[in-house]
Design goal:
Helix content: 25-40%
Strand order of the largest sheet: 3-2-29-28-19-20-25
Strand content: 15-25%
Structural class: alpha+beta
Length: 756
Amino acid sequence: RRSLGLLPAARFPAPRPCCSVYELCSHRVAGMLTLQAPEDIDRHITLDVATGQPVVIDALGPVVVNSDGTLSRITNWERMEESERNVAKRRISKRNVERLRAFRDKGELKQSLVSALAAASSDGAASGDAGGGGAEGRNASGFRFSIDRGGTFTDVYALCPGEAVPRCVKLLSVDPANYPDAPREGIRRVLEAATGVPHPRGERLNSSRIEWIRMGTTVATNALLERDGARTALLVSKGFADVLHIGSQARPDIFDLRVRCPGVLYEAVVEVDERVVLAKSEPPGEESAARRGLRRVRGETGEQVLIEREPDLDALRGKLAALRASGVEAVAVVLMHAYTYRQHEEAVAALAREVGFAQVTTSSSTLPMVKLVPRGYTATADAYLTPHIKAYLASFVAGFDDDISKVEISFMQSDGGLAPADSFCGFRAVLSGPAGGYIGYAKTAHTPGGPPVIGFDMGGTSTDVSRYAGSVEQVFEARLAGVTIQAPQLDIKTVAAGGGSRFFFREGRLAVGPQSVRAHPGPVCYRKGGQLATTDANLLLGRIRPEHFPRIFGPGEDQPLDVEGTRAAFEAMLSGEVHPFYEATSPAGAPPRRMSVEQLAHGFLEVANEAMCRPIREMTQMRGHDAAAHVLASFGGAGGQHACAVARSLGMTRVYVHRHASILSAVGIALADVVVEKQEAAALTLGEPGAAERVSVRHAALAAAVEEQLAAQGFAPPLLRTDRFLNLRYAGTDTAIMVSEPAAGGGAGGPPPPPP
């Protein structure tokens, strides 16, 4: 689907002199606009870092006129293929053509739009209003919900039938005193407000009018960080019980004298008495495999393997039964050389399901690639997290009536694409939440030929930074919470500094995080007896305006942020910790240092800002890019409060703030595309006779498989695009690099474009 947004050729009136960047951003957090335009338009505001005032309004791409008189635009028009442009042109009705002529005559349209208008007139444009196929289509047959469930807040972006302006809801992710599930509560509020029909909290929601629900969630991420996944056991080849505990012996910090061995996700290990070995040339003096009676088979990679021992399933059955009786819920099956010979893993997995394990993950189906350790890490992570995801999905669906089975429910994956709920699994979910924000700013903040963009997503628990320069930057192996996962993921760096990062005064130093006060009890200003956090400092300094912040606090969920309580908490820290320390450590005869509550709050914010600058420098300067040459795309509930300070520290001169900045992750999920990925192992040497042909045949088979899955979801071939990769390494080395297929016309493969 292509992004559609509201964008007439309008200009802002002169800003009010008192409108600082902080006031502007405080309105953004509340989903309101301090500066109003003649039309309700979807736009980016370009902020001058020195003054904080809007200086440029970006107006890109063709627009179409809806039946209610509002305007919609197709973003990324310049990057669309000709076939896609033709589809977009045909969506412009004759009535819209007449309206567009009026805009053209006023000289307010770009040349590309004039061309589209001429083409639409000559093609005999089809009837019907534009926008039905995009994320902001105005004639949807039902409600469309895009939800980002973060660690602190849950954002709901809803497209309602017959309404030109999307509805936005922001609520606490955890508020057990008022609702059991935040995404479902957000849907309930939208349905009740849009239809006028009461939807009591204690009753199952009527889902008959819902077309689709798309969600990005931190459920898997939090389970991994907090080690709150399913009780898991590892089934591994005999003799390799400690292989994942030993790991690769990599040291993240080579100068750390106290190296801590990372923990594992499984609680029990069962060794499977089986053995498969590669049929290499046999050393002199050894009895041949044929004489030893070993069966030789051809593996999926084309390599010859020898079956030394079949798995002893009878002996294994009793061990698995004992594990299941002890309460273990999931098993990960990781056997030697299963990337090329998976039959043993499949036999063991079938036995585990027969014994009663609901979640059984095989490494050959999760990651069919050479190297036992990363394959084992990924399989155990999937077994550990998937039951947690399924349990959450079951609890979410349980709050709706039986018609929910007819609703298309999909989840955001770590690679930036959507997947149906029934195929959403643990190892692809660890970046589900941040991925929505990446797609959101990538599809709205970057223009072809323009400067690269740094995404600055500051939420309540953490801050995610990423880079977009016209193509998605991905990694194929990442480490999170001490666990290495091999899967395509957006290259996003996370730092534990957000609106909920807790403040500490430690031996004369101001420290921010990594502990978070979370949504419950939250910061002091949430009126739940919480601790001082970044949000409190911004509130005290006037960077958050309580009158423009949602009144969702207190026992009745109707009170504003607590300014007086926040000031009292800072004064208590000054009198109880800061000033006593200065008095005890000041030189004899010298007056002790004193500071105001405002100085204390500002000091904490400077510490937080520096922590957020570090990952941006890592993604720019440490990779040979000039940070000052980038634009900072600020979003997230707390991004606007820190964007200018961060940009100033990095030498940037421009900050983009999207109209829906505080919920851009939810908007990005609405704009995201469905992605299906498949891979299989290979053992080929490029350059050998016939190798290129064999690669093409296998790529074609993989492409047919993924296209078949997408066709089953209702996507026609003209809407599909396939990206091909080879995992290449130099002969004699063991480190491979994932390389994308070169673009037509030659050139080295680079990072893949945004997934279709």
